[in-house]
Amino acid sequence: MSDKGPWGNGGDSGNGSGGGGGDDGPRNPWSMPPAGKRGKIGGSTSLDDFLKRARSGGPGGGPSLPANAGRLWLAAVAALIVAWIAFTSFHSIGPQERGVVTLFGKYTGTLNPGIQFTLPAPIMRVQVEDVQNTRTESFPAGGTQPNLMLTGDQNIVDLAYSVRWNIKSPEDYVFEIKNPQETVRAVAESAMRAAVASKNLTQAIGSGRGEIEADVQTRMQSLLDEYQSGVRVLGVSIQKAQAPAEVDDAFKAVTAAQQEAQSNLNTSRGYAQQVIARAQGDTTEFDKLYEQYRMAPDVTRRRLYYETMEQVLTRADKTIVQPGVQAYLPLPEVRRQQQATPEPEAPAPSAQAQPTPSTGAAR
Q1: How many CB atoms lie within 10 A of CB 76?
Q2: Long-range contact pairs involving 254-262 (C-beta distance under 8 Å, separation at least 24)
Q3: Rounded to whole angstroms, how far apart are CA atoms 261 and 338?
Q4: So what's the pLDDT on residue 13?
Q5: pLDDT at 10
Q6: Which residue in 120, 173, 209, 303 has the most C-beta neighbors within 10 A?
């Protein structure tokens, strides 16, 4: 019985060194495999073969890139560049618009209406602004909440108004103020409160509304010009000006009393003008009459007497007495009675004539 080591039978000379040729013992892991089971040393893997066929493009090597692939890539890149230049370099500016041009974020100029060309973005950028569009800001914003302000006589007035504005300088409008709409609203609120504070309540809700609108527009334009905002204020319009709802009834009563007093004052002034005009006319007539009296005193005196008697006797009852005639004939009294007594109505005609009764007795 022969001894066997852990790596096979070392004494068997017919199986080569280090490994038994038979299948009846353990095998040496460091021994060479049989010739039929050996792999090819230095052979390529399937991935290497696939990449090699893709690069070579030989027959049987699978799909390969076309020969003009570089030209196609260049054409695609050129098309993208042309589209980029076309969309970012040519700008269509409308008649009511202006374009603010920046070079790497710095202002360089303003484009006028028409087709304009600049360097492509992001080298140059153009921001188009509508300079003729009229924007309107309403106060209060929702229109439902009260907008209370303090007047110069320490009263409170509820105001609803609107402000119309547009763009005067597009470059200032874009760069000088961050939020133009909020800036305009804040300036309008400040200007309106300052203008209302210079008026009393009666002026704020009545005759002074036009002055307040003009004052607010002037204040707003001056302040916005100091900011270099590029905004032009077109007008201010007050839609509602009244006392708060809590005191509206009492205020209406006071307003009615003031209007009545003003009406009475106007009536008295009109009557005074009539009296003065009449007095001036009498004075002028007297001056003319005096000139005539200086030239012919007797004739003028007699004419004045006759005219005066004519005016007096026209309004008085007259009784004419002559010698040989009845002493008194009350003609005016008779005339008044005739005017006061209504005339009797005429009797209606009878359908048949009634026979007249005989005065004599029949025999």
Answers
A1: 10
A2: 258/202
A3: 49
A4: 44
A5: 46
A6: 173
Those residues whose C-beta lies under 8 Å from the C-beta of residue 166, and which sit 6 or more positions away, are: 131, 132, 133, 134, 135, 231, 232, 234
CB 209 within 8 A of CB 217: no
E strands, the chain, in order: 90-93, 97-103, 106-111, 114-117, 124-130, 135-139, 148-150, 156-167, 231-242
- In the three-class reduction of DSSP (H, G, I as helix; E, B as strand; rest coil), residue 210 is classed as helix
Q: What pLDDT does residue 246 have?
A: 76
Distance (Å) of CA 149 to CA 155, 159, 235, 242, 296: 8, 7, 20, 11, 75
Section 7-21 average pLDDT: 46
Residue matched to tokens 């303003």: 110
250 band by pLDDT with thresholds 50, 70 and 90: confident
3-state helix, strand, coil in the chain (%, to 5): 45, 15, 35
- Asked if 211 and 133 touch (Cβ cutoff 8 Å), the reply is no
pLDDT for the residue 349:
55
What is the residue-averaged pLDDT of the chain? Answer: 80
Three-state DSSP at 239 gives strand
10 Å Cβ neighbour count for 21?
Answer: 13
* Whole-structure pTM value: 0.52
pLDDT(18) > 50: no
Query: DSSP string of 101-158?
Result: EEETTEEEEEEPSEEEE-PPTTTEEEEEEESSPPEEEEESSSSSS--EEE-TTS-EEE
Q: Is 204 exposed, middle or buried (0-12, 13-18, 19+ CB in 10 A)?
A: buried
Q: Pairing relation of β-strands 106-111 and 90-93?
A: unpaired
* Cα–Cα distance, 196 to 212 (Å, whole number): 7
Q: Which of 137-151, 221-235, 236-250 has the highest mean pLDDT?
A: 221-235
* Helix, strand, or coil (residue 237): strand
**Cβ–Cβ contacts within 10 Å for residue 60, how many?**
5
pLDDT for 135 equals: 95
